[in-house]
Amino acid sequence: MKNTKKLQLELRAIHETWQIAHEKSAQTRTTIKKIAPYQLLIKGASANRSRAIENWLKKKANRHIGQWLQAISEDINIPFAKLCIRGQKTRWGSCSENKAINLNYKLLFLPAYLVEHVLIHELCHTKELNHSKKFWQLMSNHDKNYRKYRKLLHQANQYLPRWL
Fold first, then answer.
1. Residues near 20 by Cβ (< 8 Å), separated by ≥ 6?
2. What's the pTM?
């Protein structure tokens, strides 16, 4: 392929590493296509590459993290109303008073134990919409290592690609 640049996405949360080739072209629409197992090809303008990867990651997060959230929800018996995958700059997740959980697609880059911590944290917020003693007691019932993981989450940006 002419004019191709390659990059790698290490999605630690789901144990996948993807190779991405970018082929510049004059076409106005940027496309992303799976060309082999764990290999993607992006065709289009360089300016649209990040947006194409972000959209692909959001779909992947919705599928994988959505199933994971549902499984944990059933396991700890804390239901939620709906899930939305976003690309927040400063948050890994949030929960609204109507029990809607918002999660950052960038969670895919984190180790699985940190993602699970975030999922449990947001599920607990469906019962306690604050960080009161009651909330932390609920967290400790479902995540024995929450204090340790909470500290590690503050350093989690190290797992994100620099270009993201």
1. 6, 7, 8, 9, 39, 40, 41, 42, 53
2. 0.93
